[in-house]
Design brief:
Blueprint: E1 6-9, H1 13-24, E2 29-32, E3 46-47, H2 49-57, H3 61-67, E4 69-71, E5 73-78, E6 82-88, E7 101-103, H4 106-117, E8 123-126, E9 131-136, E10 141-147, E11 150-156, E12 158-161, H5 168-173, E13 177-191, E14 205-209, E15 215-220, E16 223-230, H6 236-239, H7 242-249, E17 263-274, E18 278-279, E19 282-284, E20 290-291, H8 299-318, H9 328-354, H10 358-368, H11 371-381, H12 384-392
The structure holds flavin-adenine dinucleotide.
């Protein structure tokens, strides 16, 4: 007999958005997190307009905005020509209540959600509880978690795998993670250096194209994050030395070197999508379902869009307002837009930045000069278009 709960593996931003949404809609949830506390890892820092609209519905947008930076504009530059085009989300202010990106570390969102939800009668989070295996019956799911080195089982009506890129839920369900891993690695270097003081007219979000060494600069409270793709043969150890980081940073502004470096992290870069986002009563959302390069800031945002899409449907089914077939629409909508929008856009963004730049520059300038094309472009990069497309799929 299944316990009457939804089980969620993973207390990252995506798992906690799903949990908060469900608990508030009257659905009891238990989140199992493998770590002893919420992750402090600094990865996503961009929240797009429709994601902020969704977080607003959970009461989480305002505290996030208070801790982050509101960025209405973003820019493209080329190393050769400097500023190429600047876009302002005010052009789509009729399509969102938040016509800007918010730059804020994802770990701030997880803390906001956890603080808001702890004590809620429908919400439970268990730390030090890695999910190891999953099995299903016609009426429920059973998971094996490890507690104090020993296996224990838990049962529920549904399971959501929000346990990140290496998802144990996805593996246990035997769902293929189709796609590829780029040979390049991504080095993220954080510095308190004041780029505003030395780059005239710089926006808090700037992508700089260059066939030799493109990069992008993102501002978060108190720091800039400079992200470089590293494609040389150098070992991971060598790439993470201060000397290597300084050599990359020295290419940003001629004549400026010896930056203060607060931290740096090296990441592998993948483009992968799970073969299905649903298997019976188990679902995959966020990085468990799809991963992509961070150009455009779409991974966590897309994951939060998955979480809201699924939670809305599960709540309807739970309350008896819709049949189980309602849940099939989650996979149908979210998997297709992940392939069509998120994967395609992030791969194209990478190609654009590493291209010689002239064609890319002309195309951006043509978009920026035409209000209708600017609007269409901003709907796409803000991810509003992908949500509209998902809704059209029915
Ligand atoms: C450098 C970088 C920059 C990025 N920038 C952006 C950006 O600006 N915007 C954006 O949208 N995306 C960005 N991303 C992607 C973003 O970080 C991820 O898409 C996001 O973290 C996915 O959230 P998630 O909750 O699905 O997974 P995760 O954040 O990975 O969380 C998964 C959670 O599950 C837990 N867990 C793992 N295994 C188990 C298990 N077996 N049992 C229980 N718990 C488990 C983990 O401990 C973790 O707490 C960036 C990524 C990188 C590397």
């Amino acid at each position: 007999m299944s316990e009457e709960r939804v089980l969620i593996a993973g207390a990252g931003p995506v798992g906690l958005v799903a949990a908060a949404h469900l608990a508030r809609a009257g659905v009891p949830v238990t989140v199992f997190e493998q770590g002893p506390k919420l992750s402090e890892e600094s990865r996503a820092s961009t929240f797009h307009p429709p994601t902020l609209d969704m977080l607003h519905a959970l009461g989480a947008a305002e505290p996030l905005i208070a801790q982050g930076l509101v960025c209405p504009t973003f820019q493209y530059r080329t190393k050769k020509h400097g500023l190429t085009a600047e876009f302002n989300f005010s052009a789509i202010a009729d399509a969102t209540s938040h016509p800007y990106r918010v730059q804020c570390e994802q770990s701030k969102l997880t803390r906001i959600l956890y603080e808001q939800m702890r004590g809620h009668p429908n919400f439970e989070l268990q730390f030090d509880s890695p999910v190891k295996a999953v099995s299903q019956t016609a009426s429920g799911v059973e998971i094996t978690i490890e507690r104090n080195g020993k296996p224990e089982t838990r049962s529920g009506r549904y399971l959501i795998g929000a346990d990140g890129a290496s998802s144990a839920v996805r593996r246990s369900l035997g769902i293929e993670f189709e796609g590829f891993t780029w040979p390049d690695r991504l080095l993220v270097i954080s510095t308190p250096f004041d780029f505003f003081g030395v780059i005239p007219g710089l926006s808090s979000v700037s992508y700089v194209a260059d066939p030799e060494r493109w990069y992008f600069l993102l501002r978060v409270p108190g720091l800039w994050r400079a992200m470089f793709l590293v494609n040389e043969d150098a070992s991971d150890e060598r790439v993470q030395t201060p000397e290597f980081a300084q050599s990359l940073m020295a290419g940003v502004i001629p004549g400026i070197s010896n930056y203060e470096i607060s931290h740096m992290t090296l990441y592998k870069v993948h483009q992968r999508v799970a073969k299905t986002f649903q298997l019976g009563r188990a679902f995959l959302i966020g990085d468990a379902a799809h991963i992509n390069n961070p150009l455009g800031g779409m991974g966590m945002n897309g994951g939060i869009h998955d979480a809201v899409n699924l939670a809305e449907r599960l709540a309807k089914v739970w309350r008896g307002e819709a049949g189980e077939t309602e849940l099939e629409r989650f996979d149908k909508q979210r998997r297709l837009v992940t392939l069509e929008a998120i994967q395609k856009t992030t791969i194209q963004n990478k190609k654009n930045l590493e291209s010689p730049g002239d064609e890319f520059r002309q195309s951006l300038q043509a978009i920026a000069a035409d209000p209708a094309r600017t609007r269409e472009y901003l709907m796409r990069v803000s991810m509003i278009a992908s949500l509209q497309r998902a809704a059209e799929l029915g």
